[in-house]
Amino acid sequence: MNWQWFHRLSSPKWFYQISGTLLPWMWGISFVLLAFGLYQGLYNSVADYQQGNTVRIMYVHVPTAIGSMMFYTMMAVAAAIGYIWRIKLAHMAAISIAPIGAALTFLALVTGSLWGSPMWGTWWVWDARLTSELILLFLYLGFISLHSAFEDRELGDRAAGVLAMVGVVNVPIIHYSVQWWNTLHQGATISKFEKPSMDPSMLLAFMLMLFAILLISGALVMYRMRNEILSREHSKSWVKEVIGL
Amino acid sequence: MSFQEFIEMGGYGPYIWSSYLIAAALFIGLFVSLKLQRNKLIKQLRRRYHQQSKQSQQ
């Protein structure tokens, strides 16, 4: 088998170049999606028959919650690749995902509170879904602070990488928490095996906001990775050329 | 639907609008901090390269 593509993919120089080409497109597409998503979500979709207009919080809440778990999984996979094959770019990806994933987790929790307050009559309950999502936030923050605690960046990569890999068990716990335990939180609406039980105008708003938020977060991760590459590879001649000297 | 009704969102306006505003603020904040980090980094690297090339000329 030819492994050349793998080496090329793991080259910081190649990633820096390809991400520079991709980023303007990602920003552009995500803003178009966001504009349509906001219009559809805040104005052009119907209110819920039980929850009224508060259902519009869903278009921020569910995409950020999905993103928080998806990016954590990606961070753990990146950390594992970096750990096993000693690929620097994978560690750079892991540390770049962390702050964006933490922000998504924070948003899922806050918008959940803002939705729970009028609908459940409480900002917070210590049930399985909410608690496991809070643990996810602590895992992200723990990863960031553990990484920054090491003077030697490569040692920090490996130590924090272990934390990321161990913490990934929390992701399926969050996902299945609404089935495994009694909870105030409602079950899945989209990822059920039957047809999603949602008005088409809601589904459209949700899909637009989901792709917009995931694409914006992905672009932010890429942007953060480019900073990380410049910082770590500063002695390479191609970086000197890119910076312009 | 009047503009007033749109803002009020059937009485849930504060909850809905603050959800969207907090999300917007956080994403914009992240982007701005990354942009500032990049500018600072490029400035530092340029200064370092400049010193290195001066030293190698001496």
Structural commentary:
The complex is a heterodimer of chains A (245) and B (58). Chain A is mainly α. Helices cover 76% and strands 0% of the residues of chain A. Chain A has one domain. Chain A has nine helices and no strands. The termini of chain A are far apart. The relative contact order of chain A is 0.17. The model of chain A has no long low-confidence stretch (mean pLDDT 91). Chain B contains two helices and no strands. The radius of gyration of chain B is 24 Å and the shape is rod-shaped. The chains are: A mainly alpha (245), B mainly alpha (58). At the A-B interface, helix 2, helix 3, helix 4, helix 8 and helix 9 of A face helix 2 of B.
Features:
heterodimer, A: 245 residues, mainly alpha, B: 58 residues, 2 helices
Please indicate the percent range of residues of chain A in DSSP E strands (runs of 2 or more): under 5%
How many domains of chain A, as an integer? 1
Helical/strand content category of chain A:
mainly alpha
Unreliable runs of chain A: none
Counting copies of identical and different chains, the oligomeric state is heterodimer
Mean pLDDT of chain A, as a whole number?
A: 91
Largest interface: A-B, 37 and 27 residues
Total helix count of chain B? Answer: 2
- Detail the poorly predicted runs of chain B: none
Please work out how many helical segments of chain A DSSP would assign.
9
Dominant shape of chain B: rod-shaped
- The level of helicity of chain A is over 70%
Concise synopsis of the structure shown:
With 245 residues, chain A is mainly alpha-helical. Helix content of chain A is 76%, strand content 0%. In chain A, helix 3 runs parallel beside helix 8, helix 5 packs antiparallel against helix 6 and helix 5 packs antiparallel against helix 7.
